[in-house]
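The records we work with from here on pair a chain with its fold. These numbers are not coordinates but entries in a learned vocabulary of local backbone shapes. To see the layout at work, look at the sequence and tokens printed below.
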Amino acid sequence: MIMTVQTHAKVNLHLAVGSPQPDGFHPIQSLFARLALADELEVQAQRGPFSITVDGLGEYCKAGEDTISRTALLWYEATGSETELKVRVRKQIPVQSGLGGGSSDAAAMLHLLNGIAPLDEASLARIAQTVGSDVPFFFSQANAAIVEGRGELIKPIEARSLPILLVMPRSLNVSTKAAYAHLDEVRAKPRPFLPDTDKIVAVYNKSCATWCNMLYNDFYVTVAGLHFYDELQRLSEQLEGYATITGSGSCWFFVSEDETCIEKMRERAVECFGADAHYWQTTLLGSSSA
């Protein structure tokens, strides 16, 4: 049996980060939105002693340490299903970018495996949370959601389809663990979470140009002052839209209702950074998107 699936990236349109808890994890209050940009997984499954091989990720991590392999091993431990798995990944989502590629791959793999040997919801949730904090969002298959806790509390919302530009420096990759440590070092005190997440949703449903009145990413303070990000913010100031980094970085994005503004922003960014950056012009997936 061969199965093929698209695994979409995400951006954090809003990301508030709380103080570290005794277990070392930080609570979040965030607005996640999925993108058309996606990896592709081709999974071959057949009867046999359990094993998994993953092709296409060798330049990013050691064999067996990727999120796909970790997900499959946890599923096998929970089900005992003797299945031989061969996975080929066609990677389009950049790593250490804040776009959630590894988490999206893991969630898609968990869905496929659950079709072979199903688990109850609690077991699926436990596997998703163990593999990564963003995996529960992707596993929910929502195109947009308010995400809280350690990433396990998902409230799907009506998603908007909007054009978006992603820009990522070629010379900077961001480790999530290092980014959290840096955030704790540079800020004096976290901003309090909004008591009513419906207000986040209400702002999201307004013009993108107004989002900056309430939405933000706490991690931006960790890159503020770096020429790359300061210049991108400057270039976007005269355009109708909303700009910040996604996740803990290093990818920056600009979203607007106006495709012309996206085109202009891309032209300005390419003129400024040329081959020193990667560029993706894509869309946020709306609720009607597959």
Summary: The beta strands are 2-17, 28-47, 51-55, 83-90, 144-149, 153-156, 162-169, 242-245, 252-255, 277-284. The chain has a mean pLDDT of 95. The chain has two domains: 2-156, 162-284. The two ends are 23 Å apart (CA to CA).
